[in-house]
Protein 1
Amino acid sequence: MEYFNKLILLFVSSALINNIVLSRTIAICPFLGVSKRVDTSLGMGMAVMFVIALSSVITYAVHYAILVPLEIEYMQVIAFILVIATLVQLIEMIIQKTSPTLYSALGVYLPLITTNCAVLGVAIMNIQEEYDLIQTLVNGIGVSLGFTLAIVLFAGIRERLELADIPEHLEGVPIALITAGLMSVAFMGFQGLIK
Amino acid sequence: MIESILYPILILSGMGLLFGVGLALAYKKYEVKVDPKVENVREVLPGANCGACGYPGCDGFASAVVSGEASPSGCPVGGVRVTEAISEILGVEVDIGEELIAKVLCQGGKDKAKDKFIYVGVEDCVAASMLSNGPKSCSYGCLGLGSCVEACQFDAIHINERGIAQVDEDRCTACGKCIDACPKGLIEMVPKKSLVHVICMSKDRGKDVRQYCDIGCIACQICVKACKFDAIEIKNNVAKIDYSKCTNCMVCAEKCPTNAIYANFERRKIAHIDAKKCIGCTICSQNCSFDAIEGERKVKHMVVDEKCTGCGICASKCPTDAITMRDR
């Protein structure tokens, strides 16, 4: 029971309190790039979630089954990137087959998940924090849910900003960055959630 | 010792191989059939990804052409060659648009047009033109600082020794990048086969133009009167040639008092009558605006070389195709 509580705490912490985008400021590129519309950002979130969930489990296995026994943990980054790149390729194929609209909407950001810091970040964090397999999975899903939440909320705000009367020199990226900063401040409110 | 190098290499290449095979299998399963036409079209495109067609890169244009969204002649860079290749792939007939070329419409170099101050600053036309319209006393003149040279991806524009941008006709692909780059709006697309151009954009009155430039258009109307084909009109104090009417007779360029109209006289044509085919119908001499064809009815006609301007009207009117236009 205590372990289960720990898992819930881990999940809330990774999704809200240490939100990957707004608190750790990782994965800003897709956060700003694919957040013009809610539906594409949701698609991006789902793709990232799939990649993170799978990659955190696989990298866990790679780390403990291959790298540790052979004492080549220093190859961690290269090995993890290999896993992530493969997964992204796989996702790209599946999305292209199943949803061409989402495929063209995600555009260049889909292959860019390969270099998405969040994916590699979660994989490495899992090892550093010495999580076990279940914690790894929970952390992965938590982080990616946090990412999806942040990007979808942000896209919703940006959709409204399109219609808003913004000073000319703030239009586009500047106002997006200000919005992101304010959201980050708002997410700081979760800090006191867990004592 | 050797293990510490061997293991990582083996493990990583093993993982790479495994993932590679996995992806290959997945590709078989999730293969999306791409219209082979798209790839074929992509191959004949220049591949510069310049975006002159209005689509994101050559790939975007290729899929737009195949889906029927874009015209096969939509690639200004590839020109006729690419248009033909694309229409062959798609199996459609396209009327090939006129081949265009960029032309810098100013001849007021250092020796012709006066400067009003010495510009010492950023070597960029946009920056210079912000400073009271640039150093040239003609506010429409080429500043020669090379913003268009920077913009050209095909190395087709250079600043010549007179300090004016000049387009290399062989290299120009009519992509239009230079047109956007020029702060003075001096560059225009003109038909490649046109040999006569008004090389001045000054909208000032003739009196003013005379004061600051020796080679500007002064809107004197002489060319308008000289043109036998109604192809020139004066608009906003500057002569404009209607290229659809212009026959390259070059009379306007001969008459222009300031030489603002430039014609490549070396490429002027001359009519030649094939004595075997001529039936002496006099249609050509009736249609010649320059009295350059002599000959009685039923007698073979002759072209008066000095009078012929190479406009080609006679050749188009001849019922027996006896007249050909030749180089001088």
Protein 2
Amino acid sequence: MTMLSERQQMSYIAAQAADARLNVELETEGMTLNIGPQHPATHGTLRIIARLDGEQVVWAEPSAGYMHRGYEKLTEVRTFPQVTALINRIDWLGSFANEVPFILAAEQLMNIEAPPRAQHIRTILFELSRIANVSLFLGDLGVQMGAVTPVFMAFRDREYVLNLIEGATGGRFHPNFDRIGGLKDDLPKGWLDETRQVMKKLRNFCDEIEDLLFGNEIFQSRTRGIGVIPADVARQYGLSGANLRASGVDWDLRRDQSLPLAYDKVDFRVWTHPDGDSWARCWIRLQEVREATKIVDQLIETLPPGPVMTKVPRIIKVPEGEAWVSTENPLGEMGYYVVSKGDLGPFRVKIRSASFNNISITPWVLKGVYVPDIITILASLYFILGDIDR
Amino acid sequence: MGLVDRGRLPAPLTKLFNIGRSYSMWVYQWGLACCAIEMGAAFGSPRYDVMRLGVIPLPASPRQADLVVVSGTVTDKMAPAVKRLYEQMPEPKYVISMGSCANCGGPYWDSYSVTKGVDQIVPVDVYVPGCPPRPEALLEGVVLLQQRIKHEDMGARWRGEGFKPIVRESEPIVVGGGPIE
């Protein structure tokens, strides 16, 4: 290695400055990069069109609709009990959580309430589906940055949660377990003990992921300070859930509204992070899995006895009226605006799903980032295509 | 392999090649909807582990793949992309249609935007029913496809004539309908 003299150093700096001037003067030709609709990083079939200047994104736009299945129209030709079988498949990772707001809206219209035991079990299954959903996110996060190991661990521990959901509901993926006025069945024997053990395993999984992934230097340099969303911008774009909390907004529908669910009977913490970058969004979700396991543990201890179904007519006709119920789903705020005309089926259902709003910020947040960061930012925003397109 | 193209391969040699082909399939994961997660569980999870069946679920592009698993709802907007990606795959290529949506439209049978069955666009070798099918069901579909490949006339496949058995005629297989042997 040779030492540069002072004069050589000066000339080197001058050459670099000349290069920089030249780069400013020379206009590089733009390029349009199409990501998707079939790309592993898009969690399905999202298409992102990005216009690049060199390595930087000048303009980006998501093109949704590749998974549009026409839910809102389909609900008009289904009866109320049939709709739950459909809406399971909106956010397919946390299926049970999709059923709850719709059933609550229908119950609100019929002016009935599920018995306390059913409310508790609903909340337990709600949190289990949150764990099943977000644990896969934590594994998938590694894949987006080139680490393949976390996804195997995520699938390993997610199977335990799916077994629990299958044990209770009979459906591994799409339970279709919620009924207007309660639940289809009570919990099976021995389920609570198994749940306790699985929750321990899941907390171990969170610790492992925190050590493996969040403590990793590469992971930190790929996510820290990248894709920053300030709180006011996040509010304007209608972000919800962990994406909003990662921008420092203390907002959680589980705590902030009183629905006939058992969240007021448990003690849990709503985590926020002041940074608003990709790392904060991932970290908030990690903490959410931990809180969810604690909520499940507390609810198991205080599970009240009693029936799981109130008296409802055999053929369900929902009286005329309108209801809006939204809950804090794994991906954010999910709401149903149900209009009934006193018929067997809903007259109109408007579905507000979290991912659609979460993804609508991409043109703003992708502006000026580098191409490899598109993937990490999209991964940290965490959307599910069925939830965007419906 | 000019011999294969002209279909002049003796039957024992064809069988030998077929065994080799059936246990070294590169599968392109065509994750579209819910089934994509179950496919991920079947292909990428330590519990189900598809590699023990001789299937490699890692090609980065359809151009390197022998088998494609269409898992999930194919919408009318997605259908041209599905067709195009299928055409990019080199012959010999096989398709597993996973889940009710890809088979026939499934719960969206009366939807205005869903293609009622991926077999309208690409030829399907194995249908795996379920909504979504369990990972075990997909693995059974893979095993059935391997059995089908073992009985295939390689020359016909190479000439682009599709599936022709060397032993006897067989219909498209439905998982649970029993193996062909």
